[in-house]
Specification:
A four-stranded antiparallel sheet has the order 2-3-1-4. The chain is α+β, with helices and mostly antiparallel strands. Helices cover about 40% and strands about 20% of the residues. The structure holds inosine-5'-diphosphate and magnesium ion. Inosine-5'-diphosphate binds next to loops. It is an enzyme of class 2 (transferase). Its EC number is 2.7.4.6. Major role in the synthesis of nucleoside triphosphates other than ATP. The ATP gamma phosphate is transferred to the NDP beta phosphate via a ping-pong mechanism, using a phosphorylated active-site intermediate. Keywords: ATP-binding, Cytoplasm, Kinase, Magnesium, Metal-binding, Nucleotide metabolism, Nucleotide-binding, Phosphoprotein, Transferase.
Length: about 140
């Protein structure tokens, strides 16, 4: 088993897709190890997306990610990082394969409904950013 970190972004919450996405998580065989509903501060978002700080979309992305509540979750499954990336689809919903969460629900390349870690190391860092040990089961 391995872990990934996921978020339901502000558009996913605002457009009432939380239930659909949690159902998909369980249907895809993930175990929910930890979950919380919270709003990121602008500083939190800047820290979380630090790797993108040189990219032109960084400031807009951080403002967007702190604009409303999100769901953050740590998930466990065999091949968790890659499996979740397959379930969510390409960053730009116009390029996301049919049936993926971004193809189904995303508004735009920025407001693309869900986050997923891109490696096992980043998954561990992202989980530690959001959860204390006693919040993971
Ligand atoms: P990913 O979420 O598919 O891993 P990344 O390249 O890691 O995509 O980018 C992080 C987030 O930044 C994306 O999910 C999206 O919200 C936003 N983003 C990425 N590229 C663009 C862009 O070209 N314009 C606006 N927002 C972008
Ligand atoms: Mg990424």
């Amino acid at each position: 088993m391995s872990k990934t970190f996921i978020m339901i972004k502000p558009d996913g919450v605002k457009n009432k897709h939380v239930g659909d996405i949690l159902q998909r998580i369980e249907k895809e065989g993930f175990k929910i190890q930890g979950i919380k509903y919270l709003k990121l501060s602008l500083e939190d978002a800047k820290q979380f997306y630090k790797v993108h700080s040189a990219r032109p979309f960084y400031n807009d992305l951080c403002n967007y990610m702190s604009s409303g509540p999100i769901v953050a979750a740590a998930l466990d499954r065999e091949n968790a990082v890659q499996h979740w990336r397959d379930v969510i689809g390409a960053t730009d919903p116009k390029e996301a394969a049919a049936g993926t969460i971004r193809a189904l629900f995303a508004e735009s390349k920025e407001a693309n409904t869900v986050h997923g870690s891109d490696s096992d190391d980043n998954a561990a860092m992202e989980i530690a950013f959001f959860f204390k040990g006693n919040e993971l089961f």
